[in-house]
Design goal:
Layout (H helix, E strand, L loop, with lengths): L4 E8 L3 H10 L8 E4 L38 H7 L3 H7 L6 H15 L7 E6 L4 E5 L2 E10 L3 E3 L13 E3 L14 E5 L3 H12 L7 E5 L12 H4 L4 H8 L3 H10 L9 H17 L5 E5 L2 E9 L2 E8 L5 E6 L1 E4 L3 E3 L13 H8 L3 E3 L2 E4 L1
Parallel strand pairs: 1-2, 1-5, 5-17, 7-14, 8-9, 8-14, 9-10
Antiparallel strand pairs: 3-4, 4-5, 6-15, 11-12, 12-13, 16-17
Helix pairs in contact: 1-4, 5-9
Length: 369
Protein backbone atom coordinates (compact mmCIF):
# COMPACT_ATOMS: atom_id res chain seq x y z
CA UNK A 1 0.00 0.00 0.00
CA UNK A 2 1.31 3.48 -0.86
CA UNK A 3 1.76 6.03 1.90
CA UNK A 4 -0.72 8.95 1.80
CA UNK A 5 -2.88 7.36 -0.89
CA UNK A 6 -6.24 9.11 -1.35
CA UNK A 7 -9.44 7.32 -2.37
CA UNK A 8 -13.11 8.20 -2.66
CA UNK A 9 -14.24 5.17 -0.63
CA UNK A 10 -12.33 3.02 1.84
CA UNK A 11 -13.98 -0.33 2.64
CA UNK A 12 -12.67 -1.78 5.89
CA UNK A 13 -13.07 -5.56 5.93
CA UNK A 14 -13.12 -8.01 3.01
CA UNK A 15 -16.20 -10.05 3.78
CA UNK A 16 -18.98 -10.67 1.24
CA UNK A 17 -20.59 -7.24 1.84
CA UNK A 18 -17.53 -5.16 1.00
CA UNK A 19 -16.42 -7.53 -1.76
CA UNK A 20 -19.86 -7.03 -3.31
CA UNK A 21 -19.49 -3.26 -2.98
CA UNK A 22 -16.08 -3.35 -4.68
CA UNK A 23 -17.25 -5.67 -7.46
CA UNK A 24 -20.32 -3.56 -8.24
CA UNK A 25 -18.22 -0.39 -8.17
CA UNK A 26 -15.58 -1.79 -10.52
CA UNK A 27 -17.34 -0.74 -13.78
CA UNK A 28 -17.12 2.90 -12.65
CA UNK A 29 -13.39 2.72 -13.39
CA UNK A 30 -11.46 5.93 -12.77
CA UNK A 31 -14.67 7.82 -11.92
CA UNK A 32 -14.66 6.20 -8.47
CA UNK A 33 -11.58 5.15 -6.53
CA UNK A 34 -12.27 2.44 -3.94
CA UNK A 35 -9.86 0.48 -1.75
CA UNK A 36 -10.55 -2.57 0.41
CA UNK A 37 -8.34 -3.40 3.40
CA UNK A 38 -8.46 -6.59 5.45
CA UNK A 39 -6.58 -7.42 8.65
CA UNK A 40 -6.54 -11.15 7.88
CA UNK A 41 -4.24 -12.73 5.32
CA UNK A 42 -7.09 -14.05 3.16
CA UNK A 43 -10.78 -13.64 2.36
CA UNK A 44 -11.60 -17.09 3.74
CA UNK A 45 -15.30 -17.22 4.58
CA UNK A 46 -16.32 -19.22 7.67
CA UNK A 47 -13.11 -21.31 7.48
CA UNK A 48 -14.23 -23.44 10.42
CA UNK A 49 -17.05 -24.93 8.33
CA UNK A 50 -15.26 -25.71 5.08
CA UNK A 51 -15.34 -29.48 4.87
CA UNK A 52 -16.19 -30.79 1.41
CA UNK A 53 -19.90 -31.57 1.92
CA UNK A 54 -20.80 -28.43 3.87
CA UNK A 55 -23.45 -26.63 1.81
CA UNK A 56 -24.82 -23.18 1.13
CA UNK A 57 -28.47 -22.65 1.97
CA UNK A 58 -29.03 -20.45 -1.08
CA UNK A 59 -28.45 -20.57 -4.82
CA UNK A 60 -25.02 -19.72 -6.21
CA UNK A 61 -26.78 -17.02 -8.27
CA UNK A 62 -27.06 -15.08 -5.00
CA UNK A 63 -23.39 -14.23 -5.29
CA UNK A 64 -21.62 -10.87 -4.99
CA UNK A 65 -23.15 -9.27 -8.07
CA UNK A 66 -25.58 -11.31 -10.20
CA UNK A 67 -28.91 -10.10 -8.82
CA UNK A 68 -27.80 -6.47 -9.32
CA UNK A 69 -25.59 -6.79 -12.40
CA UNK A 70 -26.00 -10.17 -14.15
CA UNK A 71 -23.35 -9.21 -16.71
CA UNK A 72 -20.63 -8.56 -14.14
CA UNK A 73 -17.29 -10.32 -14.61
CA UNK A 74 -17.28 -10.99 -10.86
CA UNK A 75 -20.19 -13.45 -10.88
CA UNK A 76 -19.99 -16.99 -9.55
CA UNK A 77 -20.55 -18.32 -13.09
CA UNK A 78 -17.66 -16.20 -14.34
CA UNK A 79 -15.48 -17.74 -11.64
CA UNK A 80 -16.49 -21.26 -12.71
CA UNK A 81 -15.84 -20.43 -16.36
CA UNK A 82 -12.42 -18.93 -15.68
CA UNK A 83 -11.44 -21.98 -13.61
CA UNK A 84 -12.54 -24.33 -16.39
CA UNK A 85 -15.13 -26.17 -14.35
CA UNK A 86 -18.46 -24.61 -15.37
CA UNK A 87 -19.96 -27.64 -17.12
CA UNK A 88 -18.72 -30.14 -14.53
CA UNK A 89 -20.09 -27.94 -11.75
CA UNK A 90 -23.52 -27.93 -13.36
CA UNK A 91 -23.47 -31.74 -13.45
CA UNK A 92 -21.95 -32.32 -10.00
CA UNK A 93 -23.78 -29.57 -8.09
CA UNK A 94 -27.29 -29.47 -9.46
CA UNK A 95 -28.86 -29.40 -5.99
CA UNK A 96 -26.48 -27.20 -4.01
CA UNK A 97 -23.25 -25.21 -3.90
CA UNK A 98 -20.68 -26.23 -1.31
CA UNK A 99 -19.36 -23.69 1.17
CA UNK A 100 -15.84 -24.66 0.15
CA UNK A 101 -16.41 -23.80 -3.51
CA UNK A 102 -18.12 -20.54 -2.63
CA UNK A 103 -15.15 -19.70 -0.41
CA UNK A 104 -12.90 -20.32 -3.42
CA UNK A 105 -15.09 -17.91 -5.40
CA UNK A 106 -14.78 -15.17 -2.77
CA UNK A 107 -10.99 -15.63 -2.67
CA UNK A 108 -10.88 -15.38 -6.48
CA UNK A 109 -12.94 -12.18 -6.43
CA UNK A 110 -10.78 -10.64 -3.70
CA UNK A 111 -7.64 -11.37 -5.73
CA UNK A 112 -9.10 -9.71 -8.85
CA UNK A 113 -10.33 -6.72 -6.83
CA UNK A 114 -6.89 -6.05 -5.34
CA UNK A 115 -7.80 -6.34 -1.67
CA UNK A 116 -4.97 -5.24 0.63
CA UNK A 117 -4.64 -8.21 3.00
CA UNK A 118 -2.65 -8.14 6.23
CA UNK A 119 -3.63 -4.49 6.62
CA UNK A 120 -5.13 -3.69 10.01
CA UNK A 121 -6.72 -0.30 10.63
CA UNK A 122 -5.34 1.19 13.85
CA UNK A 123 -6.80 4.72 14.01
CA UNK A 124 -9.35 6.84 12.16
CA UNK A 125 -9.31 10.64 12.34
CA UNK A 126 -10.56 13.53 10.23
CA UNK A 127 -8.68 16.62 9.07
CA UNK A 128 -11.77 18.61 8.07
CA UNK A 129 -11.52 17.43 4.49
CA UNK A 130 -10.83 13.66 4.51
CA UNK A 131 -10.74 10.74 6.88
CA UNK A 132 -7.17 9.96 7.89
CA UNK A 133 -6.85 6.19 8.30
CA UNK A 134 -3.69 4.74 9.80
CA UNK A 135 -2.98 1.08 9.09
CA UNK A 136 -0.19 -1.37 9.79
CA UNK A 137 1.00 -0.88 6.20
CA UNK A 138 0.66 2.84 5.69
CA UNK A 139 -1.79 5.73 5.70
CA UNK A 140 -4.92 6.27 3.63
CA UNK A 141 -7.08 9.33 3.07
CA UNK A 142 -10.73 8.73 2.17
CA UNK A 143 -13.83 10.80 1.54
CA UNK A 144 -16.09 8.00 2.78
CA UNK A 145 -15.65 4.88 4.91
CA UNK A 146 -17.64 1.65 4.79
CA UNK A 147 -17.28 -0.71 7.75
CA UNK A 148 -17.72 -4.38 6.85
CA UNK A 149 -15.88 -5.95 9.76
CA UNK A 150 -18.22 -8.89 10.22
CA UNK A 151 -19.49 -10.43 13.40
CA UNK A 152 -17.83 -11.95 16.44
CA UNK A 153 -18.41 -15.60 17.45
CA UNK A 154 -20.79 -15.75 20.40
CA UNK A 155 -20.36 -18.16 23.31
CA UNK A 156 -22.87 -18.09 26.21
CA UNK A 157 -21.79 -16.46 29.45
CA UNK A 158 -21.55 -19.82 31.23
CA UNK A 159 -18.49 -20.65 29.10
CA UNK A 160 -17.34 -17.30 27.72
CA UNK A 161 -14.30 -17.10 30.01
CA UNK A 162 -13.24 -20.73 29.69
CA UNK A 163 -10.06 -21.41 27.71
CA UNK A 164 -9.82 -25.13 27.14
CA UNK A 165 -8.97 -27.29 24.10
CA UNK A 166 -12.12 -29.30 24.77
CA UNK A 167 -14.33 -26.27 24.04
CA UNK A 168 -14.69 -24.49 20.71
CA UNK A 169 -17.05 -22.41 18.61
CA UNK A 170 -18.36 -23.67 15.28
CA UNK A 171 -16.23 -21.03 13.51
CA UNK A 172 -13.14 -22.99 14.62
CA UNK A 173 -14.48 -26.49 14.04
CA UNK A 174 -12.05 -27.31 11.22
CA UNK A 175 -9.11 -25.88 13.17
CA UNK A 176 -9.48 -28.39 15.97
CA UNK A 177 -7.80 -31.74 15.50
CA UNK A 178 -9.48 -33.23 18.55
CA UNK A 179 -10.42 -36.86 18.10
CA UNK A 180 -13.99 -37.67 19.04
CA UNK A 181 -13.58 -41.47 19.07
CA UNK A 182 -15.22 -42.97 22.16
CA UNK A 183 -15.91 -39.51 23.62
CA UNK A 184 -19.09 -37.87 24.83
CA UNK A 185 -19.62 -34.79 22.65
CA UNK A 186 -22.10 -32.04 23.59
CA UNK A 187 -23.25 -29.71 20.80
CA UNK A 188 -24.98 -26.48 21.88
CA UNK A 189 -27.11 -24.31 19.57
CA UNK A 190 -29.50 -24.65 16.66
CA UNK A 191 -29.50 -23.70 13.02
CA UNK A 192 -27.68 -24.77 9.88
CA UNK A 193 -24.14 -24.63 11.27
CA UNK A 194 -25.10 -26.76 14.27
CA UNK A 195 -26.74 -29.33 12.02
CA UNK A 196 -23.71 -29.47 9.74
CA UNK A 197 -21.44 -30.03 12.74
CA UNK A 198 -23.79 -32.72 14.05
CA UNK A 199 -23.60 -34.55 10.73
CA UNK A 200 -19.81 -34.13 10.66
CA UNK A 201 -19.37 -35.54 14.17
CA UNK A 202 -21.69 -38.46 13.44
CA UNK A 203 -19.87 -39.20 10.18
CA UNK A 204 -16.96 -40.54 12.23
CA UNK A 205 -14.45 -38.38 10.33
CA UNK A 206 -12.56 -37.93 13.60
CA UNK A 207 -13.80 -41.12 15.18
CA UNK A 208 -17.36 -41.91 16.14
CA UNK A 209 -18.21 -40.72 19.67
CA UNK A 210 -19.67 -43.20 22.13
CA UNK A 211 -22.34 -40.59 22.97
CA UNK A 212 -23.55 -37.48 21.19
CA UNK A 213 -25.90 -34.94 22.76
CA UNK A 214 -27.32 -31.96 20.88
CA UNK A 215 -29.23 -29.30 22.82
CA UNK A 216 -30.94 -26.90 20.44
CA UNK A 217 -32.69 -24.40 22.71
CA UNK A 218 -36.24 -23.20 22.37
CA UNK A 219 -36.07 -23.08 18.56
CA UNK A 220 -35.37 -26.79 18.37
CA UNK A 221 -34.57 -28.39 15.03
CA UNK A 222 -36.79 -26.11 12.97
CA UNK A 223 -36.67 -26.38 9.16
CA UNK A 224 -35.80 -23.39 7.04
CA UNK A 225 -38.81 -21.99 5.18
CA UNK A 226 -37.47 -21.97 1.63
CA UNK A 227 -40.86 -21.97 -0.07
CA UNK A 228 -41.59 -19.81 -3.10
CA UNK A 229 -43.68 -17.07 -1.52
CA UNK A 230 -41.44 -16.80 1.54
CA UNK A 231 -38.51 -16.15 -0.79
CA UNK A 232 -40.41 -13.16 -2.16
CA UNK A 233 -39.49 -11.42 1.10
CA UNK A 234 -35.98 -11.05 -0.34
CA UNK A 235 -37.26 -9.44 -3.54
CA UNK A 236 -35.87 -5.87 -3.86
CA UNK A 237 -39.43 -4.53 -4.20
CA UNK A 238 -40.32 -5.97 -0.81
CA UNK A 239 -37.06 -4.66 0.68
CA UNK A 240 -38.02 -1.14 -0.43
CA UNK A 241 -41.43 -1.57 1.21
CA UNK A 242 -39.79 -2.91 4.37
CA UNK A 243 -37.48 0.09 4.73
CA UNK A 244 -40.47 2.41 4.54
CA UNK A 245 -41.95 0.91 7.73
CA UNK A 246 -41.41 2.15 11.26
CA UNK A 247 -38.85 0.49 13.55
CA UNK A 248 -41.62 -1.23 15.51
CA UNK A 249 -43.30 -2.51 12.34
CA UNK A 250 -40.01 -3.83 10.97
CA UNK A 251 -39.16 -5.60 14.23
CA UNK A 252 -42.56 -7.28 14.30
CA UNK A 253 -42.29 -8.32 10.66
CA UNK A 254 -38.78 -9.75 11.10
CA UNK A 255 -40.01 -11.90 13.97
CA UNK A 256 -42.84 -13.24 11.82
CA UNK A 257 -40.41 -14.01 8.99
CA UNK A 258 -37.73 -15.66 11.12
CA UNK A 259 -38.38 -19.12 9.66
CA UNK A 260 -37.21 -17.86 6.26
CA UNK A 261 -33.88 -16.70 7.71
CA UNK A 262 -33.19 -19.11 10.55
CA UNK A 263 -33.53 -22.84 10.35
CA UNK A 264 -32.06 -26.00 8.92
CA UNK A 265 -32.40 -26.97 5.27
CA UNK A 266 -34.71 -29.91 4.56
CA UNK A 267 -31.94 -31.85 2.82
CA UNK A 268 -29.66 -31.56 5.82
CA UNK A 269 -32.39 -32.63 8.25
CA UNK A 270 -33.06 -35.66 6.05
CA UNK A 271 -29.35 -36.51 5.90
CA UNK A 272 -29.07 -36.28 9.68
CA UNK A 273 -32.05 -38.54 10.23
CA UNK A 274 -30.69 -41.00 7.69
CA UNK A 275 -27.33 -41.06 9.48
CA UNK A 276 -28.99 -41.80 12.82
CA UNK A 277 -30.90 -44.64 11.15
CA UNK A 278 -27.64 -46.06 9.77
CA UNK A 279 -25.96 -45.90 13.18
CA UNK A 280 -28.89 -47.54 14.94
CA UNK A 281 -29.79 -50.29 12.47
CA UNK A 282 -27.34 -50.73 9.59
CA UNK A 283 -23.73 -50.13 10.57
CA UNK A 284 -23.51 -52.06 13.83
CA UNK A 285 -22.03 -48.99 15.55
CA UNK A 286 -22.22 -48.03 19.21
CA UNK A 287 -23.12 -44.38 19.56
CA UNK A 288 -25.84 -43.22 21.90
CA UNK A 289 -27.43 -40.02 20.69
CA UNK A 290 -29.84 -37.53 22.23
CA UNK A 291 -31.32 -34.63 20.26
CA UNK A 292 -32.92 -32.35 22.85
CA UNK A 293 -35.23 -29.64 21.56
CA UNK A 294 -36.13 -26.81 23.93
CA UNK A 295 -33.16 -27.52 26.20
CA UNK A 296 -30.38 -25.05 27.03
CA UNK A 297 -26.96 -25.22 28.64
CA UNK A 298 -27.04 -22.96 31.72
CA UNK A 299 -23.86 -23.94 33.57
CA UNK A 300 -20.53 -25.46 32.59
CA UNK A 301 -17.71 -26.37 34.96
CA UNK A 302 -14.37 -28.04 34.31
CA UNK A 303 -13.35 -31.18 36.18
CA UNK A 304 -10.50 -33.67 35.84
CA UNK A 305 -12.33 -35.89 33.38
CA UNK A 306 -13.94 -33.19 31.24
CA UNK A 307 -16.95 -30.98 31.88
CA UNK A 308 -19.98 -31.03 34.12
CA UNK A 309 -22.89 -29.62 32.15
CA UNK A 310 -26.13 -28.32 33.65
CA UNK A 311 -29.06 -28.47 31.23
CA UNK A 312 -32.44 -26.80 31.64
CA UNK A 313 -35.71 -27.69 29.96
CA UNK A 314 -37.07 -24.33 28.77
CA UNK A 315 -40.69 -25.47 29.07
CA UNK A 316 -40.81 -27.29 32.40
CA UNK A 317 -37.75 -25.42 33.82
CA UNK A 318 -36.47 -28.73 35.19
CA UNK A 319 -32.69 -29.04 35.47
CA UNK A 320 -30.36 -32.02 35.22
CA UNK A 321 -26.63 -32.57 35.01
CA UNK A 322 -24.52 -34.68 32.67
CA UNK A 323 -20.83 -35.18 32.01
CA UNK A 324 -19.17 -34.58 28.63
CA UNK A 325 -15.65 -34.79 27.27
CA UNK A 326 -15.95 -31.87 24.88
CA UNK A 327 -18.40 -29.05 24.10
CA UNK A 328 -18.99 -27.44 20.70
CA UNK A 329 -20.87 -24.13 20.56
CA UNK A 330 -22.83 -23.45 17.37
CA UNK A 331 -24.38 -20.40 19.00
CA UNK A 332 -23.99 -17.93 16.19
CA UNK A 333 -22.41 -14.51 15.99
CA UNK A 334 -23.02 -11.03 17.34
CA UNK A 335 -22.43 -7.65 15.77
CA UNK A 336 -19.44 -5.74 17.08
CA UNK A 337 -18.64 -2.06 17.03
CA UNK A 338 -14.96 -1.16 16.56
CA UNK A 339 -13.15 0.52 19.43
CA UNK A 340 -13.03 4.30 19.14
CA UNK A 341 -11.96 7.36 21.04
CA UNK A 342 -13.35 10.85 21.42
CA UNK A 343 -10.35 12.52 19.80
CA UNK A 344 -12.35 13.80 16.86
CA UNK A 345 -15.93 14.34 15.86
CA UNK A 346 -15.56 11.94 12.93
CA UNK A 347 -14.39 9.04 15.09
CA UNK A 348 -17.45 9.54 17.29
CA UNK A 349 -19.53 8.52 14.27
CA UNK A 350 -18.58 4.93 15.09
CA UNK A 351 -20.33 5.29 18.45
CA UNK A 352 -23.43 6.73 16.82
CA UNK A 353 -23.59 3.70 14.55
CA UNK A 354 -23.94 1.35 17.53
CA UNK A 355 -27.46 2.54 18.25
CA UNK A 356 -28.75 3.07 14.72
CA UNK A 357 -26.88 0.54 12.53
CA UNK A 358 -27.75 2.78 9.59
CA UNK A 359 -26.18 5.56 7.56
CA UNK A 360 -24.62 8.50 9.40
CA UNK A 361 -23.87 11.53 7.25
CA UNK A 362 -22.20 14.81 8.11
CA UNK A 363 -20.74 17.55 6.00
CA UNK A 364 -17.26 16.06 6.05
CA UNK A 365 -18.08 12.53 4.88
CA UNK A 366 -20.00 9.34 5.42
CA UNK A 367 -19.50 6.24 7.51
CA UNK A 368 -21.57 3.21 6.54
CA UNK A 369 -22.00 -0.07 8.39
Amino acid sequence: MMQNRTVDVLAIGAGPANLSLAALAAPAGTDLSLAVVEARESASWHPGLLWSNSRLQVSGVKDLVSLVDPRSRFSFLSFLHEKGRLYRHLIASREYVSRKEFDQYLTWAADHLGVDFGTEVTTVDHDGDHFQVSTTRGTLRASHIVLGIGQKPFIPSCAADMDDPGIWHSSHHMDRGTQTLDKHVLLVGGGQSAAEIALDVLSGRRGLPRRFTWVAGRGGFSPLDDSAFSNEWFNPLFVEYFHGLSDAQRSSLLEEQSAAMNGISHNLLSALYRRLYEIDYLDDLSCRHNFLSGVSLVKLTKDRAGFMCTLRDEISTSVHEMHSDMVIFATGFRHRIPASSNRSRSVCLFRAMSSTSKRTTESHGTVLM
